[in-house]
Amino acid sequence: MKRPGAGWSFAAPALIVIGLFFVGPVVAALLLSFTDFDLYALADPHNLRLVGLRNYVDVLQTPLFWQALGNTLYFVGIGVPLSLLVSLGAALLLDSRLARCKPFFRTALFAPVVTTIVAVAVVFRYLFHTRYGLVNYGLGWLGLEPIDWLGDAAWSMPTIILFAVWKNFGYNMIILLAGLQAIPQELHEAARIDGAGSWQRLRHITLPLLAPTLLVVSIITVAGYFQLFAEPYVMTRGGPLQSTTSVLYFMYEEGFKWWNLGRASAIAFLLFVLILAVTSLLLRLSRRWGAA
Amino acid sequence: MKPRLAFWLALAILALSLCSCRRADERTVLRFWGMGREGEVVAQLIAEFEREHPQIHVEVQQLPWTAAHEKLLTAFAGDALPDVCQLGNTWLAEFAALGALQPLDGYVAQSPIVEKDDYFTAAWDTNVIGGKLLGLPWYLDTRVLFYRKDLLARAGFLDAPRTWEQWQGAMAAIKSEAGADAYAILLPLDEFEPLLQLALQQDEPLLLDGGTRANFRSAGFRRAFAFYTDMFRQQWAPAMSDTQISNVWNEFARGFNTFYITGPWNIGEFKRRLPAELADAWATAPLPSSDGRGGGVAGGTSLALFASSRQQQAAWQLIEFLSRPAMQLRLHALTGDLPPRRSVWSEPALANDEYAQAFRVQFEQARPPPPVAEWERIAIAMQLAAERVVRGGVSSEDALARLDAEVDAMLEKRRWMRAQEQAR
């Protein structure tokens, strides 16, 4: 009987912290999502009403929620594969034996991850400025018409995706690089002796052995990209024409701009269910793929 | 180990409390939150306040307008509000609903400096919520007509229009003169202010029953709404948002639009940004109205004292100081902000400013927007209804019916609270 007690007491500090700062708030938010907690309730608790599932029904009937969901899926659908490709490409280049100055490039490619998003957004807004931007200058040099990157509803999301991929690919790159370096060189050598080209080695040795790492990275990235917020917040404020309003941005406005915390909590839980569904689908698919 | 720890803790707490006591003994510390440009320059005025009141020290914190609202609400929730704050008029109702504001009636009654009659009536009334004065007007905001005199004259008009009818005639003439690539007026479709000005010229209120019911299908609002959307239908105004116009001053300078509805800060911007040859080619005028009486939104910013402040007397002294005519004149010199006191307007700096006069004339007739916490959201919904008609091809009748339904849904909580109150 002594042992479990000791175990619990060792785990207690961590459990208390997790309970206080994670489980507690999550349960509170869940309860909040069944109330109409708002400005008036903040002023006087008597103005709080239990509304059951009405927040969820309301949110699902709000056109902006569906638009935000569409924007988010657009961002995840294009951004995640693009980000993984760039990360994998950069990791492969860094892992190549032909590469020189590896530590320098590794640091340089990782640098965007540790930059401050607000400061970088200022630079990007200049780069993508319709008239003075370097990007449009380059387009003009190629003889193309300037594009209103952040002001045109059709181009704003691609710009945000570019920004997010540039900002985040270094993180995945480091994880993938570690995975690549764990692949035994003997396998490559053996394949080379058997006459396999570099493409065949990538397809039949590198990628299969990297699959578990890729799975982890893609799940982290999907979960992260679903929570798109900072990029539109600093670049476009959800505009133009709400084309960069993500689900999380919608939640932020509902919660902290209009102070409808009950409804904002409901949005948060809808997003949670969505991310859970997508990531478990990814896991299941990968298991089936692994079995086959 | 344990008693020792307790001893050190006690010592630390004692030391801390001693420190804070000593500091409080020396000087009262007031916390002031200012926003945007005023937050930057108010320190210059406050330096003088501190010279007059050596026992008070004011800590100024600057907030950007875009983040101020969230920050204030979060501060209320976290019980960390400052003593005095600069508060947009449309936010007063919200903080009044929270019970966060200290009524100023008692202070004003005894003040030799603050005279109710010297303030523009509309500006003062905006600060009275539920019969109590919850803020003191600091500077005014209403939107007037900025226009190109030369282009208007070329279309055959020497004076700015005063009624909607004259305005429509001028816009039609300008448009036929200007051709397909230029317009008579610029009304960015994502700005609710121009439509709101026209709506508040009407006698019918926008909300009914103590701000619990939408009233956007009244004859008055229909009139304003029809006038607004008609400017797009006639091609007098381009169906554009702010983001599609890279630089309003450039467009104005190259004659893209003759009329533009905007606020006091643009007097300075127009002086600074328009090319020298156009320096005398523009003017301001009060907004035309359907009956020629004028009118618009009585907006602006107030100084508010938070109920949570523990140094109410000192905080009031600061508000009173900033409300002095001399200080309001200084603020105008520093920022171009328009003072809410009539006596300041007779000073040469303002009396001789032909651009500022339009604001004064309009302000005498201006009305405050409905004092409900949900107002900003309602105004955005109102503008979205106009955008649906202009861009989406929805009929006005459908757009207004939807707007009424949306706003009624936003006000559901207010209706419930009102019913609760009446039941009690």
From TrEMBL, chain A:
It comes from the Bacteria. GO terms for biological process: transmembrane transport. GO terms for cellular component: plasma membrane. InterPro entries: ABC_transporter_permease (IPR051393), MetI-like (IPR000515), MetI-like_sf (IPR035906). It is found in: Cell membrane. Keywords: Cell membrane, Membrane, Transmembrane, Transmembrane helix, Transport. Belongs to the binding-protein-dependent transport system permease family. This is Carbohydrate ABC transporter membrane protein 1 (CUT1 family). It comes from Tahibacter aquaticus.
From TrEMBL, chain B:
Belongs to the bacterial solute-binding protein 1 family. Residues 1-24 form the signal peptide. PROSITE patterns: PROKAR_LIPOPROTEIN. The keyword RNA-binding does not apply. It is found in: Periplasm. Its main location: periplasm. One of its GO terms (cellular component) is periplasmic space. It holds the Pfam family SBP_bac_1. The keyword Signal applies. Keywords: Signal, Transport. It comes from the Bacteria. This is Carbohydrate ABC transporter substrate-binding protein (CUT1 family).
